[in-house]
Sequence to fold (1051 residues):
Amino acid sequence: MSSDVVPPVDASASAPPIVARAPGLDDRFGRLEIVFWLLAIAPLLVLPDYLVLASQVLIAALFALSLDLILGYAGIVSLGHAAFFGVGAYVAGLLSVRGHAEPLSGLVVAALASGVVGFCTSFLVVGGHGLTRLMVTLAVGLSLHEAANQASSVTGGTDGLSGMETSDLLSLLPFDMLGKTAYLYVLGVCFVVFLLVRRLVHSPFGLSLRGIRENERRMHALGAPVQRRLIEVYTLAAALAGVAGALSAQTTEFVGLETLGFDRSAGALVMLVLGGAGRLYGAFVGSCLFMLLQSVFSDIHPAYWQFWMGCLVMLIAFFARGGILGYASDMLMRLRERRALSAAAPAARTRA
Amino acid sequence: MIAKFGSSWLSVWLLALGVVLSSCRSSDAAKTEAEPAPGATRPAEAASDAIKVGLLAPFSGPFASLGAQIEGGIKAYLDTQGGNIDGRKVELLVRDDTGAPDVAKRLAQGLIVRDQVDFIAGFALTPVAMAVAPLATEAKKPMVIMNAATSSITTKSPYVVRVSLTLPQVTAPLATWAAKNGIHDVYSLVSDYAPGADAEAQFKKTFEAAGGKVVAADKVPVNNPDFAPFVQRVKDAKPEAVFVFVPAGTQGIAFMKAARERGLTEAGIRIIATGDLTEDQQIDPMGDAALGVVTTHHYSAAHASPENDAFKAAFAKVAGTQLRPNFMAVGGYDGMAAIAAVVRKLGPGKIDGDRAIEAFEGLELSSPRGPIRIDPETRDVIQTVYVRKVEKRGESYYNVEFEEYPAQKDPGK
Amino acid sequence: MASFFGIVFDGVAYGSLLFLISIGLSVTMGLMNIVNLAHGAFAMFGGYLSVWLSARGVPFLVTLPLCFVALGLAGAGCERVFYQRLRRRSQLDQVLFTIGLTFVAVASAMLVWGPVEQRVELPGALRGQLQVLGVGLGAYRAFLIALVAVLSIGLVLLVEKTTFGARVRASVDNESVSAGLGIPVDRVFCLTFAFGSGLAGLGGALSIDVLGLEPTFALKYLVYFLLVVSVGGAGSLGGTAVASLVLGSFDVAGKYYVPEVGAFIIYGLMIVLLLVFPAGLYGRRA
Fold:
């Protein structure tokens, strides 16, 4: 009797295996990825009028990517990440105002500075849990915002830091109003940072982060240095946020208090979740969509923008936790399952 | 894995979003046209001859009321002209800068490069004006400041022209008036940002030169919700008067509330301020607490002149009667009038930035506020500053002018 | 000395207002474990409702209980539809959803009422000053303190002496055991959330005169409410009260004695307090 029944396992052995490839665990550049980066170069050729918007989209994406490191991979929800963006922006701005306007070196210094600030505040953040941790990130963000406001003789306070000039990139390409150089600069930096993060995420370090996000207690039990890992990733995320901030300052030649504000932190959070946290490209997809929707909707009526974005965010929170990329990957997996099942079905039908 | 129920919801939502987006595209184009006057036909060749004016102002966030006033003023002027200047249609491209300078810079760049505007106007806030100034220089586009009041803005680019006011310009006459009218010591209370610093410095300079004394000076954070501790400090120092500068709008109301609660006037301390404290849009909510407050400013809705009546009527027509036009609306009105005058001077053909700036210099206008002139050396506005007192007329409150200081230049430069 | 007394009085008034609005948030976060960033929106709509009613001739004092009831009902509705499902979700989901809700609220307020600040018609008796021991104190603030004090006593009585209160306390302490004992935990949650939202609405109406009301209210003051709840300990009435008084007083005193640093003080204070008391002053959950 039992030999007549063909268990599904046998059927699937003849059909192609449905091993769901955990996305992103292998290190090769997928085809889609190459397409993505080629598309990223396209605006230089195809959309020269929109380069300034494109630069700002990439900067927002970079910032969201730095948030992804702590949120998507390490599981820390932060409402104050813009603090590091702002530190990077102000450092780059102040360097430029004081006469040192070379962009690349300014970028490095800004990244170091925000990394240091991130390191110092990381102890406050990684020590806590749940609500406390969330509040501390918020408090840190607000305190830095207030500090920048108070130190108006240095930062320009509410009026912002103006009088910035970014000198030519590599002493060759000037930063002009059309934004070509700016876009090239931003794209280049983004790509380099992205490679770095990608490498990190696929490394044992990245895996341990995921472990911490999934089950912190177990990681402790396994002997993983949880505290140290969290501090390291928080510091790195802060440094990368600082890079994004410096890029913003250098390409717009202005730094204001809103670089440190809650709106920017919340915006990055929304962008990241919209695209899909824990998937490197989620930051890019999310910020593209967010900024695009914002520029379209704001033109009609600014309040409409906020309203519909709010609705979208609410829906995502309930129904599409993985964001767009999560949804896409789920659809893909379901498609594969269905295909495999239909391949197995004829075999099942042979059973009496 | 999303529940099956959830993924269909998401698809429906994305579909709805797509529909909304595509419908938006068409209405987006519609918004950028100026209202055509009733009965006017659009001549076919006017399209290429049109004057494009980009308006950068906040329409959302904490400064949203500023944008509404400025836009109302501009539209009011255009309404009196039938939507065109000498037969050339005026296209108003409105952009919401949300009060953020980086957004403003990007929008300004778009207006200049993509939309090819002839003039960029608006600028409710100083940081936005500062951020956009370098773009105006690079693109050689005239930049018309309709509200921002920090003295140094016009020095940031040779293409900046201002029709609004500067803080030193309206503060100096107040200090002079106070010294002449028996006030000897004053406590200074200003908001902590560039216009506040301008006001504080100018008041001290003029007041002390006239023999008065500023006993103390406090700076209040810009979006401060509660003035009680600051008012208490003023009360403790027992000066004869308190000089106040806060940004127009909610901060003024917050200050007056605290002053009423703490009984500042009952304690014998007079409140003198720049007109931002009792500006026309927010004076009614202040109620009786504002009676007797003396301010100096360049515009009051109660100013008696035929130009002002025409302005108020046109404003009510385009913006409804809910909003009382204030000095920002006048900034929009006069800014647009100045642009129109320059366009008329330059004649037909493309607007050249350098010639436009030359045309602005020395320009004279009969504004709803009184006569104004653009200083040919500084491209800043020269105007009459009025001393006013808050009085009740019928059910509403107004700033009633009782003294004036004509042809005031910006002493800050 | 008189000014010190005045500052304390102002601090207590400010703190009372914070307490009234934050108590709902504290219970939501402590009881239902939901990070509700939309709480400020409930308070804001309470304010707008009061303005709307006043415009139709309803006296200010009458709008207060009406706002309480209306926002309570709204809270119950939201709880049934949204928050009930949010309880089992991760913190990120809750943060996201409530941020989205707040955006929708702010945008709606902007679209309906515009960006202009709203005015409130206080009854004449509340507009002046009271002379107490030679110090002039704002009548409205005195009214605030008195009202909140009375409400607090009522709350304490409700929580300590009634069956409902006992059920709430049980559910906060241990949800599963309470359910096992037959306590209708779901209904308790719904009622508590409704009550907290109602109080927020009432607080919002009361705060128009002190804090000002315009569409960004929901976000602007959210920070203060969150501060109060996390410092005081979510779920604790006493903790919230102490935290609001402390934060209110320090904020006002800071602005009076050291205005250059003013706003900074409460953030710094909050970080210090959170480091020392990670679960909040009276917190139960770590």
Summary: Chain B touches chain A through 48 residues (CB under 8 Å). Chain B has two domains: 46-165+304-379, 168-297+386-408. The radius of gyration of chain B is 23 Å. The longest helix of chain B spans residues 4-31.
